[in-house]
Amino acid sequence: MLKISDIQVVYNQTPILDQFNLDIEAGEIVGILGPSGCGKSTLLRAIAGFVELAKGEICLNNACLCNCKCFMPPEKRGVGMVFQDNSLFPHLTVAGNIAFGLTKLNKTERQNRVNELLTLIRLEGMGNRYPHELSGGQQQRVALARALAPKPSLILFDEPFSSLDKALSEHLAVEIRQLLKQQKTAAILVTHTQREAELMCDRYAGLEDVYANNWIETAA
Ligand code: ADP
């Protein structure tokens, strides 16, 4: 489904991610661990289309997202993203946030999809609230719903729990795993917390171990 072949990103003549490979199956949830600065976010940015490749190729569902000849813009890639805290649009309601990427649907279809997602994340009746009227955990569930809304085949999670306490992070990791599996959506979780990867992912590895294809399968 996602095929990353021999990629390299270069910042100011310094290579980050050199000859990096990763294959992800449809619906699979993969975790990538590693200390700050090792290149985890750069990997996600390359997949999402926020940074260009110096070498290699990324394909999603057999379509080329980027290589030395082509570059598909981020909005055309069909890849969802969930960041750390404060990623919701503060001036939009919960429903407005979830509907944000649903530009191809008419009004009724959009409302139906938003209601479906509010039920999925157990926030029925809260569509008219604003992000600041929600708890941190609820905000991250809305961020997930916004990413899931256009039915992407892949969602990228960049340290999604870093502003939440340990108990809530672990609870959400399990809940998000269930939602992703229910929606048959593949995901990459980038985190520096091993426990989150154990709870949310099918397999995980430190960024360095990905080069050696040295993965830890989880019992989840
Ligand atoms: P991580 O997500 O693992 O913390 P990053 O992918 O953000 O790591 O960064 C990897 C390395 O690339 C770091 O050394 C960082 O300083 C550098 N870097 C990240 N973004 C840029 C940029 N836009 N320009 C130059 N260097 C960058």
Automatic annotation (TrEMBL):
Pfam families associated with the record: ABC_tran
Keyword match Ubl conjugation: no
EC number: 3.6.3.30
Domain ABC transporter: 2-220
Domain of life the protein comes from: Bacteria
Matching PROSITE patterns: ABC_TRANSPORTER_1 (PS00211), ABC_TRANSPORTER_2 (PS50893)
UniProt keyword list: ATP-binding, Cell membrane, Hydrolase, Ion transport, Iron, Iron transport, Membrane, Nucleotide-binding, Transport
CDD domains: ABC_Carb_Solutes_like
InterPro entries noted in UniProt: AAA+_ATPase (IPR003593), ABC_SmlMolc_Importer (IPR050093), ABC_transporter-like_ATP-bd (IPR003439), ABC_transporter-like_CS (IPR017871), ABC_transpr_FbpC (IPR015853), P-loop_NTPase (IPR027417)
GO cellular component annotations of the record: membrane
Transferase among keywords: no
Example GO molecular function: ATP binding
Broad class of enzyme this protein falls into: hydrolase
Identification of the protein by name: Fe(3+)-transporting ATPase
Organism of derivation: Thiomicrospira cyclica (strain DSM 14477 / JCM 11371 / ALM1) (Thioalkalimicrobium cyclicum)
